Amino acid sequence: GQNIDQPTEMTATEGAIVQINCTYQTSGFNGLFWYQQHAGEAPTFLSYNVLDGLEEKGRFSSFLSRSKGYSYLLLKELQMKDSASYLCAVRSGAGNTPLVFGKGTRLSVIA
Amino acid sequence: DGGITQSPKYLFRKEGQNVTLSCEQNLNHDAMYWYRQDPGQGLRLIYYSQIVNDFQKGDIAEGYSVSREKKESFPLTVTSAQKNPTAFYLCASSSRQANYGYTFGSGTRLTVV
What we know:
The complex is a heterodimer.
Chain A: E1 3-5, E2 9-13, E3 18-25, E4 29-37, E5 44-49, E6 53-57, E7 60-65, E8 70-75, E9 84-92, E10 100-101, E11 105-110
Parallel strand pairs in A: 2-11
Antiparallel strand pairs in A: 1-3, 3-8, 4-5, 4-9, 6-7, 7-8, 9-10, 9-11
Chain B: E1 4-7, E2 10-13, E3 19-25, E4 31-37, E5 43-51, E6 54-57, E7 64-66, E8 76-78, E9 87-94, E10 103-104, E11 108-112
Parallel strand pairs in B: 2-11
Antiparallel strand pairs in B: 1-3, 3-8, 4-5, 4-9, 5-6, 7-8, 9-10, 9-11
């Protein structure tokens, strides 16, 4: 089976940097996704990693180490609107294989 | 603009009733998925379909049924056999490109009354 772990909750200060970790165990790894989900809304795509290393996209960066089964999402210059849940999801298999999601990390940004 | 539409946004069901949640996409995506989300939980896969007229059970398919008669449509029926149907239901679609991920609908919140 597959197992994806992420912290349940985190709190960070406006303007700071926060790192949300995700560890996974799977066979046939074919990509890791990060989504942002505001309360009561659908998830929105943030990033995709399939090779080791860092992918940067504005204030958000995502890192992957396949050998360690580890990823993190880095959020810089935190804003109040970044308060949301962040979901880590893994694909194991070809392009349309369903994603398996972690339980999500609820981030609260405080002034 | 292309997108994926779920309806209704809110749905109330009496115990013992079947209800059907609609999901329509005009993105020309081959694959479609249904997930359920409970408070404090991640998304759990109910059913998915990779091509028309074919679908597979996910991790929690019991008490649910689907059909995929058209590429654009993937309705989910919550049957009376589903003992705890109150949840947030999300439909998603994807293309074959591995890096594309999902496009999600806006979700349907189902409540049993």
